[in-house]
Write a structure and sequence with these properties.
The protein has seven helices and no strands. By secondary structure, the chain is mainly α. The chain starts with 5 loop residues before the first helix and ends with a helix.
């Protein structure tokens, strides 16, 4: 079992950085290093590993397994994951004074409001994209969601 591949590092670094850069530009906090580091290391390890686990755990071509794959992918990017992402953004932006438990509230609202989009997209990624391309597809979707998560601080914070 591989822990980290060059493809995942490049995919995570470039695509997450692109989405994060767009979000940072909207917030007036342009800083690509935070997602180059996160996307190329932490996210490039944990997300492909989770997708491989989902693929092994729910491998049968049944509709119920397809729904479980979708739910497991959506559950992974839960309010705690979103709060951690927002925490990383604040830490990399040297905004330590703004770190508070409010991040959990913002992340929870963001998670609930994005579910109508996240569920069908995760269904497509987990059930119609080959495993080798799931991290790439998820990275593209996450780049779009990074913009949404950045805006969620303004919308729900």
């Amino acid at each position: 079992m591989r822990l980290l591949s060059i493809e995942d590092v490049v995919t995570g670094s470039l695509i997450y950085a692109l989405g994060d850069s767009m979000a940072a530009l909207l917030a007036g906090e342009f800083q690509t290093m935070r997602m180059l580091v996160l996307g190329g290391t932490l996210y490039a390890v944990e997300i492909p590993a989770w997708f491989r686990w989902i693929g092994r755990r729910y491998a049968r071509p049944r509709f119920s397994d397809a729904i479980k794959r979708m739910l497991m992918a959506a559950a992974y990017f839960n309010p705690l994951w979103i709060a951690r992402h927002l925490l990383f953004i604040r830490l990399f932006s040297e905004q330590w004074q703004t770190v508070s438990w409010d991040l959990l509230s913002i992340a929870s609202q963001s998670f609930v409001y994005c579910l109508p989009v996240a569920l069908p997209v995760n269904y497509l990624i987990q059930n119609h994209i080959p495993l080798a391309w799931r991290f790439f597809a998820s990275s593209v979707f996450s780049a779009v969601m990074a913009v949404y998560f950045s805006l969620s601080e303004v919308l729900y914070g």
